[in-house]
Amino acid sequence: MYIGKREFVRIVTYLIAAILMVGVYAAQEYNSAENLKRSMQYEMSRNVEDLSGSLDNISITLTKGIYAGTPHQLSNLSSKLWSDASNAKISLSQLPVAELHLENTYKFLSQVGNFSKSLADKYSSGEILSEEDRQKLVKLSEYAKTLSENMWSVEQRVNSGELSFEKIKTGIWDTENENDPGYITEGFTDFEEGYDNYPVLIYDGPFSDHIMEKQPEMLKGESIVTPETARKTAVKATGDSTIMHTDLADEGGKMPCYVFTGDTTTAITKAGGYLCYMLGHRQVNVSNISCEKATEIAEDFLAKMGYSDMEDTYYEVQSNICTINFAYETRGIICYTDLIKVSVALDNGEVLSCDARGYLTNHRDRVVTTPEISKSDAASVVADNLTIEDTELCIIPSGGLNELYCYEFKCRTEEGNTVLVYINADTGTEEQILLLTIGEYGTLTV
To answer: Which of 400, 401, 411, 403 is nearest to 378 (CA)?
Structure first.
């Protein structure tokens, strides 16, 4: 059959169009499958992070329970354990690991909160925690720590791409350590995702996460300064006379600021004209000065900027930059509510950054009275398995917007670790326990 040229061109055109349509459809289906795969991978990674974080929190809270000296504190820790265990089970239930047998892991998560609550009830009824009870807490903490470490390893492998959704489902737990109990390997197989509440690793002193939602105490009643006045303060802080200001960069909110840019970004409060924060961006390649010298430089800087009576508490070194955390001190009482941190370059001693928002939020004149509870009575509340090495009066933030007047007991554990215990100086209540790690690169509290 003869096909004319026009018909031939038309047929070829239709065929090309059909091929293109099939190609487009196939591409769309492929993209849809890839998007679904990425979405599933993201959800799995998020659950892994949540699970890891909950397990990490459980381990830390159990360790704190070992050193709890009062029913009140043990009850608080029990509530947190219950919450973290529930979050861990929710994260675990959302992972595609139904074919794995997680009886021991679920059992652990279900029992950990109940066991600590039973100890708190036992303590409240007048009994004391026995050495056996504390050893059980030690074992639970060690188990939780092992679970957490395994889960963090899984999370890293997922994030690096070493593990995918398919790989995890086919059984990535074949490489078990012969020294580990069998149930740990079995339980960890299912925990494939987690990180959510990374235990507050605080380098700003024990209470750097104090609430910043209230109106800044320091700025109440202060007059608004002009941009020109604020610029002088910014130049004083940075030493840079070329810094620029534009209205669009200014900040609002509870602490309105003029913002100046140059080699650093510097914010000066509109009310009162105080240095709010300064952020430097220079890379520091070497360390030529000590952290002790950096602390002296930071103290001089704060005094120059009008922040006096600041006591250095803890520090951290990262990338050749030493960040020192200061708390306000009045009449020998450390105010962990009024915090400033200063970062100093260890190559030449330059002050790179400063953050005074905690201080501006909380600082005010305080009426500090004589404690209702004596130091010896407060010390009697501290757990018997802790050795008190030092005691100070301090002010710490409560869970809300209030402050608590406390004794801070720096204690040593039987294993040689450091624990900070805070006993209310007016009521004798054990308000807080922090685990302290002092290393080459700083001090860590959890």
So the answer is: 411
Low-confidence ranges of the chain (pLDDT < 70): 1-20, 22-45, 95-104, 107, 110, 113-114, 117-118, 120-128, 154-155, 157-213, 399-401, 438-446
3-class DSSP assignment, residue 172: coil
Backbone φ and ψ of 52, nearest 5°: -60, -45
Residues 267 and 257 sit within 8 Å (Cβ to Cβ): yes
Tens-digit pLDDT profile for residues 211-238? 456 789 999 999 999 999 999 999 999 9
Left (φ > 0), alpha (ψ -120 to 50) or beta: where does 183 sit? alpha
pLDDT tens digits, one per residue of 121-150: 666 666 667 787 788 788 888 878 877 877
pLDDT at residue 234, as a whole number: 97
Check if the beta carbon of residue 404 is closer than 8 Å to that of residue 431. Answer: yes
Q: Do β-strands 442-445 and 333-345 pair in parallel, antiparallel, or remain unpaired? A: unpaired
Classify domain 375-445 at the CATH topology level: Nuclear Transport Factor 2; Chain: A, (3.10.450)
The pTM of the full predicted model, rounded to 2 decimals, is 0.61
Amino acid at 200: V
CA–CA separation, 230 and 213 (whole Å): 24
Strand, coil or helix: 237: helix
d(CA 263, CA 235): 11
> Which sequence spans correspond to the domains of the chain?
7-190, 217-362, 375-445
Give the pair of three-digit tokens for residue 41.
């991978």
